[in-house]
Amino acid sequence: KERHEVINFSPGPAKLPCQVLMQAQKDLTNYNGTGVSVMELSHRSQDFNKILTAAENDLRDLLDIPSNYKVLFLQGGGTGQFSAVACNLMNLREGQTADYFVTGCWSAKAAKEAEKFGKVNYVLPKSNKYTSIPDKSEWNLSPDASYVYYCDNETVHGVEFQFIPDTKGVPLVCDMSSNILTRKFDVNKFGVIFAGAQKNIGCAGCTVVIIREDLIGQQMSNTPTVFCYKTQVGNNSLYNTPPTYSIYIMGLVFRWKKEHGGVEAMEDNSKQKSDMIYKIVNNSSGFFVCPVDKKCRSRTNIPFRIGSQDGCDVLEKKFIDEAAEKGMIQLKGHRSVGGIRVSLYNAVTVKETQYLAEFMEDFLAKHRN
Ligand code: PLP
Description:
Blueprint: E1 7-8, H1 18-29, H2 46-63, E2 69-74, H3 77-89, E3 97-100, H4 105-114, E4 119-122, E5 147-151, E6 153-154, E7 159-160, E8 172-175, E9 192-196, E10 207-212, H5 229-234, H6 244-259, H7 262-282, E11 288-289, E12 301-306, H8 313-325, E13 328-329, E14 340-343, H9 350-367
Parallel strand pairs: 1-13, 3-4, 3-5, 5-8, 8-9
Antiparallel strand pairs: 2-10, 6-7, 9-10, 11-12, 12-14
Helix pairs in contact: 1-6, 2-6, 3-4, 7-9
The structure holds pyridoxal-5'-phosphate.
The site of pyridoxal-5'-phosphate (PLP) has 11 residues, from helix 3.
């Protein structure tokens, strides 16, 4: 198949803008007239330093990151940060307790990991359904938490916060792996923000961490050095070899976003695309069933079942197969929830989403009783 014949709705690693790939193709064999591949640049070279600095500056512009926040580009993925956050912040208050909002499988994993390093207080009543975010009246925030943790968008369950939790001054930590750069938000409200690159930022291999300066330096004594925010900040993410190629791709994506209207334009597109799909789901008289509460439906990952609440295997397989025949791939839901999942990250265009929407309308017309 040719690239233009396929629309990749993958939850990650996700589609990258074509312009980025074309540039990467050029730089793969000879970077900017250096005679070496961008992959072969030393992480201590001036050429790489320019890549790193430009990526950081462009991210700062895109998210309007204040000067009292440091930016790190690390390895270890989102999962690495589940541990790093706890190691670096659990000590902020004496009780070594952290509050965790668990709204899906990723925040559940983060909380489980944090239990290795301190006490975890579960803010929300336990549930394994993950289809809503309980009201404030049901929250149980501890009075002495070192930090409060949540996942802004649960990639598997399709649950997205439409607000920033008020923690009354306790540092707020947020996993934005699957929705960073899809809407504007005030960085000042956060202590730490992290995001794996492979969805809205670039290719797999790099994790962006944004940390408020005053939270750096109180890590536990057994914190692994590569995950120590103080060490990595002190070395500008170059304590050890960073994911150089992934940082390079990330820089190209940031530049592409700036050239395409910045976060405001990404937010507009994200709304248009997700509205289009949810409208069909909502008007399908129960043929397409999204289990997530309307108040917290994700704009970037839309899970739904076909035929009934529990899904009809035959119809769901038919949907995936017929979509694939039309070039629309990676629509299968996560194995833990089944059904369909449509991932609409920044590189998926409104036009491509329209194509899927038309397919869904046709499928509905053909198969509805
Ligand atoms: N957090 C969220 C919201 C995710 O979607 C994922 C992966 O998909 C992770 C964390 C884990 O990231 P990684 O695979 O980079 O460790």
